[in-house]
Amino acid sequence: MIPVCSLEDLPKGESARVATNPPIAVFHTDDGDLYAIDDTCSHQDASLSDGWLEGCLVECPLHAALFDLRTGRPTCLPARRPVRTHRVTVDDGFVHVHLAAEEGSAA
Ligand code: FES
C-alpha cells in the first residue's frame, strides 16, 4: 500500500504522480471517483499524469491516445497495449494506492 497525498490535495479534475518504480498516476475525476494506473504510456515514454482528464478517460499528452481509467485499456490509437490499473482507497482523508502486483490482480 502506497501513500499518495491527502484527498484535499487532489481536487476533482486533478492528477498526482507517485514516484514508485514504475511510477503510478492517480486521478480524481469530476464525478468524484479515484483511479490509479501505471503512469507511463504504453505507446512511448510519456507521463499520463500530465494528460487531460475527460470523464473516466485520460488523453496521453504526447500523441493523444485515450486510456480508460477503469480498465487501463486504450480506446484509440496509437496506443495498443493496456496499462495496469491499481486499487485506490481513502483512509482518514488520505489517498493510498494498492499496487496490482501486490494484490496479484494485474489488469
Ligand atoms: S506516448 Fe502516449 S500515445 Fe504516444
Write the layout of secondary structure elements.
Blueprint: E1 2-6, E2 14-18, E3 24-28, E4 34-38, E5 52-54, E6 57-59, E7 66-68, E8 85-91, E9 94-98, H1 100-103
Antiparallel strand pairs: 1-9, 2-3, 3-4, 4-8, 5-6, 6-7, 8-9
This protein binds FE2/S2 (inorganic) cluster.
Structural account:
This protein is mainly beta and 107 residues long. The protein has one helix at 100-103; strands at 2-6, 14-18, 24-28, 34-38, 52-54, 57-59, 66-68, 85-91, 94-98. The strands form two sheets. The protein has a six-stranded antiparallel β-sheet. The protein has a three-stranded antiparallel β-sheet with strand order 5-6-7, with no helix packed on it. A hairpin with a 2-residue loop joins strand 5 and strand 6. The two termini are 17 Å apart. It binds FE2/S2 (inorganic) cluster. Residues 41, 43-44, 46, 60, 62-63, 65, 78-79 line the site of FE2/S2 (inorganic) cluster (FES).
User: How much beta, percentage-wise?
Assistant: 35-45%
Termini Cα gap: 17 Å
Strand ordering within the main sheet: 1-9-8-4-3-2
Helical segment count? 1
Averaged pLDDT: 95
Largest sheet: 6 strands, antiparallel
- Uncertain segments of ≥5 residues (pLDDT<50)? none
Task: Fill in the keyword field for this structure.
107 residues, mainly beta, 6-stranded antiparallel sheet, 3-stranded antiparallel sheet, 38% strand, globular, binds FE2/S2 (inorganic) cluster
